[in-house]
């Protein structure tokens, strides 16, 4: 088996003179749920459109299981389900009728309609309802049902939780997990919110201003945040404080009023506090810094200019 179900090599794109993507090497392992993350405007949609040939490629290579799209377009894309732009649904037709139309386009069997409705949780009454009366979450699920008709190996979804309420977000997460676990579908899902996909993904690629700033497993990303969390002291004169603390602790100045201490215990924090207060330096705040994944994501997407 190829190492990657989807790989881009040196994908580079400009709109006019403006560079949008710079040498993007995306690597999606088979069987993964890959979160393609980045702030608004980072270049996620452009990347996905280039991958699918919806936008003319300027530079670089896109490989599906080691094969280029050009020359094998129909063959390759028949194994890929997508939800990139707003799903084009027939509002006046029911869920089932929508699927019946698309199944003819894809050459899927009539029985497949019932299967995909079941898979996305739209069987029964929901299937008989007109798509125009669906909630956004149901529309998204119907669009995924359409994408599932040809039994894709890879599902590519651009911000599928955009605009969904918290319940809809959970449903979407459960659906994608089920498809991955039970059907073996590899999922590539983009999002600008790490928190929204953190519970879903196995792998992460983080893009900022058209460049990949992290790629690897979610575990690998979490390891990055496992450095010493540090304690923050807000005090009147951090430079004076630094002089008082450095003989005893590993400390540095942070901003106009902050001192960061590389310590691990509350006792050390209390001792540092005592040193400052006894020297007449007021301490306004003393707290352990939160070093969570969201903070790391913000750092990665802000620092890489
Ligand atoms: N057709 C276009 N012509 C010119 N510039 C474009 C075009 N499409 C996108 N851009 C620009 O390319 C950059 C990347 O846009 P893209 O839509 O790929 O980002 P994104 O990461 O998907 O963000 P969002 O979550 O906001 O959709 C943005 O600065 C955008 O304004």
From TrEMBL:
Gene3D superfamilies: P-loop containing nucleotide triphosphate hydrolases (3.40.50.300). It comes from the Bacteria. This is ABC-2 type transport system ATP-binding protein. Residues 6-234 form the ABC transporter domain. GO terms for molecular function: ATP binding; ATP hydrolysis activity. The keyword Transport applies. The keyword Nucleotide-binding applies. Belongs to the ABC transporter superfamily. Transmembrane segments: none annotated. Keywords: ATP-binding, Nucleotide-binding, Transport.
